[in-house]
Design brief:
The structure is a single chain. By secondary structure, this protein is of the alpha+beta class. The protein has five domains: 48 residues, SH3 type barrels; 94 residues, Immunoglobulin-like (Sandwich), CATH 2.60.40; 79 residues, Sandwich (Immunoglobulin-like); 91 residues, 2-Layer Sandwich (Phosphorylase Kinase, domain 1); 196 residues, Transferase(Phosphotransferase), domain 1. The protein has 13 helices and 33 strands. β3 and β4 form a beta hairpin. The structure holds adenosine-5'-diphosphate (ADP) and magnesium ion. One of its GO terms (cellular component) is nucleus.
């Protein structure tokens, strides 16, 4: 006779825990019982016999209701009280929360969590990895399996590795039955993140998203309306094989963020900066105002982000420059900051801004209306004849230093001093240097770290990603002077690595071939600007007071050919930039 609770032969039993070669929740027929070996069972599908431990089997011949007992005076089922329920009801497990797909970087922690509705005590939980290499998960080393009395279970994978990627299955069972749920884990190398998408406003209800990725081929797009916290797909999660997508039917005036998900690993990009769509009326109003006010004329030049066009103000009849910046390349916030700064600056050698039009002339383009510089870049101007003299360089350097000194005095640093951003206005009795492009200009009171806009003029702190400031402009002025006096570049080398190394070592000299005619005062000043330690570089005011700029003007002749070659090389680096802006003949008068 079998003792109480031991299942007699012929009993139908259910597997309630993982066991090699047997599936959880399979039913088996009991053949025999042995106190040491457990049950000898036959699987109902394969008709094979196995010895299985007693604790992994549950009798499923018994009717479920035979287990029920009721406490007098209490409701048998109280959905809000789990403890009550597990005391009173034993039902087939059913998930109230299933495990969800997880995507993490190598080395971080993956957590799968699920919970079943109250279904009685003695729940058995098992975790298995089903793909790509099936195995049973055990509580050891990096893997922690946890379970509480409230039907919640966790699988935690610490210090995740690529090889942990796969599908995980959680099975929760009791005497009555079992429930399963599965989800995938994707562990990716931290080195292949997905950049956030760039956004271009196409209309008050649509935006163009563009992103770049060599590592992934298929993508999903999602957007989130500010305040909802909910990421939605604009196209029913249809995978995209391209790297751009137009999101339509957005609400004008609402603020959105967008993100990209790379398939198949579901790598999620950072969310884009929040973008407020224009309200239809405002958008049209700005465009109409713009068209009513300006007659667009020829393109003058292109920079890193902008196209600058000449235009005529219908109201005043004056010519202006329109700096048109695509929101894809420079955020509206940066353009707005550039405008605010230039509108507030009153310095003879700094370009002045008169107006800003958002999303005009077309959606996605912002236009800063600038004072027109009627002349070319300084380098182009100074090298127009066969030669120039050191005194010319002194004169323009003084003006550049004066502009920067004015900025520095107001805790601003330009941070992009280079030949393409220094122009000469020939519309006056004598040429006036004009500093343009304040897209990188920052307040030096803040701790600012920027990538170098142009390596050739970049200081060691810019290259190293350290805090930048006024001293960053001092270095750039040192390089600017060096080039202006010699036509060659102090640090430029055959490769980016070599150039970077030269900058970091401050490895430059004054070769006789280029500097034999140049005054020692000029070289001495350059040496005081090109110093690795930022605090040791001399300020713009000190430069203006230096012997080189105070002494009698020097007539040393500098041939223009080298500076012209320098300009042509820079133009090749940035082929959109004409060496002499198109359509304008500055030197004819
Ligand atoms: P980016 O920020 O894209 O580099 P910039 O402000 O430097 O744009 O302008 C691009 C080019 O347009 C400059 O290199 C210069 O040749 C020309 N430019 C800029 N501002 C003016 C202006 N106010 N008047 C005439 N030309 C200008
Ligand atoms: Mg520029």
């Amino acid at each position: 006779m079998y003792e109480h609770n031991i299942m007699p032969p012929g009993t139908q039993a259910r597997i309630i825990c993982e066991w090699p070669d047997i599936n959880v929740s399979d039913t088996v027929s009991v053949i025999a019982y042995d106190p040491l070996q457990g049950y000898l069972v036959r699987t109902n599908t394969e008709l094979e016999e196995h010895w299985l431990p007693q604790q992994i089997l549950a009798n499923c011949s018994r009717k479920p209701w035979s287990f029920r007992f009721r406490k007098h005076g209490r409701r048998s089922v109280d959905a809000t009280n789990y403890q009550d329920n597990i005391m009173t009801d034993i039902t087939c497990p059913e998930f109230s929360e299933k495990i969800k797909d997880v995507s993490i970087y190598c080395g971080s922690k993956a957590i799968f969590k699920c919970r079943v509705k109250p279904c009685g005590r003695n729940l058995h939980v098992s975790w298995r990895k089903t793909e790509p290499d099936p195995c049973v998960m055990r509580n050891s080393g990096r893997f922690i399996i946890n379970q509480n009395d409230e039907g919640e279970t966790l699988l935690v994978i610490n210090n995740a590795r690529n090889s942990d990627s796969g599908t995980y299955l959680c099975t929760i069972s009791n005497e009555i039955g079992s429930a399963e749920c599965s989800a995938s884990l994707v562990v990716v190398e931290a080195s292949s993140p997905l950049p956030e998408p760039k956004i271009q406003v196409l209309s008050c209800s649509s935006v163009l998203l563009e992103w770049e990725s060599d590592s992934y081929k298929q993508f999903l797009v999602e957007f989130c309306k500010l305040g909802t916290g909910e990421w939605l797909s604009p196209n029913n999660n249809l995978p995209l094989n391209s790297q751009s997508y137009t999101v339509e039917h957005l609400i004008p005036g609402e603020t959105y963020s967008f993100r990209i998900i790379a398939l198949p690993n579901k790598i999620i990009s950072l969310p884009s900066l929040a973008l407020t769509l224009p309200v239809a009326d405002n958008l049209r109003w700005q465009q109409e105002q713009f068209k009513r006010r300006y007659i667009e004329l020829e393109e003058i030049d292109r920079g890193r982000y902008a196209i600058v066009r000449k235009a005529q103000d219908r109201g005043t009849g004056n010519e202006v420059a329109l700096k048109q910046v695509s929101r894809r390349k420079q955020s509206h916030k940066v353009t707005q900051a550039e405008y605010t700064l230039l509108a507030g600056i009153q310095h003879y050698n700094i370009i002045h801004a008169m107006a800003l039009f958002d999303n005009a002339p077309v959606p996605g383009i912002d236009t800063i209306v600038l004072e027109l510089v009627k002349g070319p870049l300084l380098f182009t101007y100074i090298s127009q004849n066969d030669a120039y003299i050191e005194a010319d360089v002194c004169e323009y350097s003084k003006q550049l230093m004066s502009a920067l000194s004015w900025l520095h005095g107001r805790d601003l640093a330009h941070l992009d001093v280079k030949p393409e951003n220094v122009m000469v206005d020939l519309g006056h009795s004598s040429p006036i240097l004009k500093l343009v492009d304040f897209g990188d200009c920052v307040n030096t009171c803040k701790n600012v770290i920027l990538p170098p806009a142009c390596l050739e003029f970049a200081s060691p702190e810019l290259v190293l990603g350290q805090q930048v400031g006024k001293h960053t402009d001092y270095w750039a002025v040192g390089v600017f002077l060096y080039v202006l006096l010699s036509g060659v570049s102090p640090f430029l080398d055959d490769s980016l690595e070599e150039t970077t190394a030269n900058i970091l070592k401050c490895d430059f000299c004054f070769p006789d071939d280029y500097f034999c005619n140049i005054s020692s005062e000029a070289k001495s000043l350059i040496k005081k600007l090109l110093i690795v330690t930022p605090s040791q570089r001399i300020s713009m005011n000190e430069c203006i007071d230096s012997p080189w700029l105070k002494s009698v003007p020097r007539a040393n002749i500098i041939p223009s050919s080298r500076l012209r070659t320098f300009q042509q090389r820079r133009h090749r680096l940035n082929p959109t930039t004409p060496t002499t802006p198109t359509g304008i003949n500055y030197f004819s008068t």
